[in-house]
Amino acid sequence: MKKIHLSSVDSTNAYIKSNYKELDNYTFVSSDNQTNGRGRNNRQWKSENGKNLLFSLLILDKELIKHFKEISIISALTIVEILEEMDIKDVSIKWPNDVYVGSNKISGILLEAVTRDEVECLIVGVGINVNQKEFVGDYLTKPISILNIINREIDINSFKEVVYGRLIDNLESLLKGHDFYPYIYSHDYLKGKQAYASINNINELVQIHGINNDYSLKISVNNKEKNIDSGEITFHI
Ligand code: BTN
């Protein structure tokens, strides 16, 4: 495994996508700046140069690739664990894989797969708001940073090492069959909430029951229960 740090790149996910054939499993690519940082559902990921942790992890291991359904939520859980260890309160996972502190988003994850005849690799892209003070512009959910919460800057390089180490540990535990569900269940931001969700392009009020143990989400629409598998649904609370 190898760590690559760039001062600027279009997107760390895109960098891995172009270079994965020459890279090893668990290669970690971080950057101070992204000129075309991308979020889920074709959104942009904006970040002030040098202020936040922006990275992507390459997964080539075929056994781990089989766990693609769990990888993004376990990456989110990894960030929740680390923030809680920093004594930050009210940290949760907004299904499928956003990390919230209170009702503000502190981190987002973009999991991408490169597929030819089969999945060749997975790319776990993570943005964590660390030392950015202000977030100006349009955001779906108001962002928050670690600095906003603890009122001091932290060393991004040391933080990066902690995140990298813990993420690999958790992925290795996933391979060994560790059950992460109890921790996820107890950090479920949406559980019990009502929200508007666009389902087949129609905005509906849904009741959210919470994350199931297969990491799908149980909701009720018009009193009818259903489980949602994909993250291609956006909730507006
Ligand atoms: C989201 O919440 O929509 C996901 C955001 C993911 C952002 C990270 S930053 C590092 C990596 N490179 C990208 O272009 N995106 C991910």
Question: Can you walk me through this structure?
Answer:
- The chain has 237 residues and is an alpha+beta fold.
- 25% of the residues lie in helices and 33% in strands.
- It contains six helices and twelve strands.
- The protein has helices at 12-19, 62-65, 68-85, 146-150, 156-175, 181-185, and strands at 3-9, 28-34, 53-59, 91-94, 98-101, 104-115, 119-128, 194-199, 202-211, 217-221, 224-228, 235-236.
- The strands form two sheets. A seven-stranded mixed β-sheet has the order 1-2-3-7-6-5-4, with helices on both faces. The protein has a five-stranded antiparallel β-sheet with strand order 11-10-9-8-12, with no helix packed on it.
- Helix 3 (68-85) packs across helix 5.
- The longest helix is centred in the C-terminal third of the chain and has 20 residues, at 156-175.
- The radius of gyration is 17 Å and the shape is globular.
- The chain starts with a strand and ends with a strand.
- The mean pLDDT is 94.
- The structure holds biotin.
- Biotin (BTN) is lined by residues 11-13, 34, 37-40, 43, 45, 54-56, 98, 108-110, 125-127.
